[in-house]
Amino acid sequence: MGLAFKNILVTGAAGFIGFHLSLRLLNEGYHVFGVDNLNDYYDVNLKKDRLKQLTENPRFTFYQTDLSDLSGLKDIFESAPQENEKIDAVVNLAAQAGVRYSIQNPHAYVQSNLVGFVNILECCRHHGVKHLVFASSSSVYGANTNMPFSVHNNVDHPVSLYAATKKSNELMAHTYSHLYKLPCTGLRFFTVYGPWGRPDMALFLFTKAILNGQPIQVFNHGKMRRDFTYIDDIIEGVVRVTRSVPEPDPNWSGDAPDPATSYAPYRIFNIGNNNPVELTRFIEATESALGKKAEKQFLDMQPGDVAETYANIDDLYAAVGFKPETTIEQGISKFIEWYRSYYGA
To answer: Would you state the pLDDT for residue 1?
Structure first.
């Protein structure tokens, strides 16, 4: 990306990943335009406290807008840049998150993840954006069991609506790459955790319950395996990928279509720790960092969940020379340090 990029629009800027990315980009000297609807899917005060840190920087401009509001989004693209400069790159991290919630409230996912995403694509197309990076998810692998999950595998069997919307984003982005030569990169995140994390995620729920002396819910009787990925590793990957604008792949063939690349300027990458951890070990590491044992309530697998995630990150490493290194012990300790400080626990 280098000096050619000055202005970056980050959607979901008050969210967990969006906040950390915006902070990193500001520290590197970029002008960041943050968009968030500040919805109440979880504690809005947590989002506002993240924002407070960003708005202290004069190079951060915040817009409270919903991606499904096309006219509001267009206004941002037209008015945001200073001195007749354009928004150079967009990192779309805004989405209705959560696999389980998508079963209870499917329409929220259609508005945010489908309507909102096509609005982003339209704005990028009409305003000459040089690179759209967007959050996909490890959940797109769905019923796949061939481990580790590879971006070159077919992912046509999602097991939750959330996963289906993320797969749809990949397809929609490819269409815009094909039709309008819009460079697009999709990032399949694997179970992200760390300071300022989402309250609906396992580590947050476990920490809160253990400190309050309440039982924790352990799904699939603790036999789940997840490629837990620490937030700083995710951000390093996102920043490097944003700087690396995709080119058409001259070796791509319609006779044997590779889902990860294209004849258009389009790429898909996994960002995961490349080291799946059983839930029981994750809980043990949490207990150890807290110095307190958990009371466990063992439950069956929930609808829409998968038993295991495991990322093949060869393509990411080949493209940008990075792979996550943070162990769960290191990452969990940092999260708990933040949690105790933020909540005075």
So the answer is: 39
Pick the closest to residue 12 from 57, 53, 58, 47 (CA basis).
Answer: 47
pTM over 0.90: yes
Give the pLDDT of residue 98: 67
So which residues are the catalytic ones?
A: 162
Residue 1 CA to residue 130 CA, distance in Å, equals: 10
Cβ-proximal residues to 200 (8 Å cutoff; 6+ apart), any chain: 41, 42, 97, 98, 101
Quote the DSSP letter at residue 139. G
Alpha helices by DSSP H, listed for 66-180, are 70-79, 101-104, 106-109, 116-126, 161-180
Question: Taking Cα atoms as reference points, which of 99, 131, 112, 153 lies closest to residue 9?
Answer: 131
Angle between helix 202-211 and helix 328-343 axes, rounded to 10 deg: 60
Q: Please provide the size of the chain in residues.
A: 345
Token representation of residue 341 = 């400080």
Q: Under a CB-based contact definition with an 8 Å cutoff, are residues 16 and 41 in contact?
A: no
How far apart, in whole angstroms, are the C-alpha atoms of residue 323 and residue 311? 11
CB atoms within 10 A of CB 19: 26
Terminal-to-terminal C-alpha distance of the chain: 41
Task: Look at residues 80, 192, 181 and name the one whose alpha carbon lies nearest to residue 138.
Answer: 192
C-alpha count within 13 angstroms, C-beta hemisphere, residue 141:
27
What band does 12 get if pLDDT is binned at 50, 70 and 90? Answer: very high
HEC string for 233-284: HHHHHHHHHHHCCCCCCCCCCCCCCCCCCCCCCEEEEEECCCCCEEHHHHHH
Burial of residue 50 (number of CB atoms within 10 Å: 0-12, 13-18, 19+) = buried
Which residues on adjacent β-strands are paired with residue 270?
Answer: 188
Residue 234, strand partner residues: none
Residue carrying the six token digits 């006779």: 255
Average pLDDT score over residue span 327-337: 97
Reading the block at residue 180, the tokens are 């309008």
CA torsion, ordered 9, 185, 331, 13, to nearest 10 deg = 20
Q: How many CB atoms lie within 10 A of CB 311?
A: 29
CB of 132 closer than 8 Å to CB of 123: no
Strand partners, 11: 35, 92
